[in-house]
Amino acid sequence: MPAQHDVVALILEDHRTMERLFQDMRSVEADRAKALREFAALLVAHAEAEESEVYPALKRFRNIDDDEVEHGSEEHQEGNEALLALMEVDDVGSDEWDEKLEELVEAITHHTDEEERTILNGARENVPDDRRAELGSAFVEARARLLKEDCGSVENVRKVVGKDNG
């Protein structure tokens, strides 16, 4: 199956992009604020597309652990909270910003590692190629729609986390 259609490959590709953006956010030579904006949009779109299109479908497969899927959703929330904490720091590159960045890196790295070892390996082994391709298409469509809606704005991240003042 072409990687551009396999939901597992698409999710892994996003994970690698997130790692690259972490490197940019850590680098004094990069546009750290721009990397954070790009990361925020990708993280929110990725997680919401997984939760709306991928996770519910994977729960239907007998050999994929439902508890791991539920735990993945909980970790998305933790990642979004860490993202918001970083986005709310005014001074990019300050000690506080670096501290919040490392908290975000830790939360996301923990989640992606666990998701890759449990949920995605389970999907590779138990979900037929045609179903993974269908899920890949649904994931890409949902992610693209969310990206177009500016899902990575601080206002939207506050809503996602449940800390909007509206």
Structure description:
With 166 residues, the protein is an all-alpha fold. It has helices at 7-26, 32-58, 66-87, 95-126, 129-148, 154-161. The model has no long low-confidence stretch (mean pLDDT 91).
How many individual β-strands?
Answer: 0
The largest sheet, given as strand count, sense and whether it forms a barrel, is: none
**Uncertain regions spanning at least 5 consecutive residues:** none
The ordered string of helix (H) and strand (E) elements is HHHHHH
Jot down its keywords:
166 residues, 0% strand, 6 helices, mainly alpha
Itemize the secondary structure elements and their pairings.
Elements: H1 7-26, H2 32-58, H3 66-87, H4 95-126, H5 129-148, H6 154-161
Helix pairs in contact: 1-2, 1-4, 2-3, 2-5, 3-4, 3-6
Short description:
By secondary structure, the protein is mostly helical. Helix content is 78%, strand content 0%.
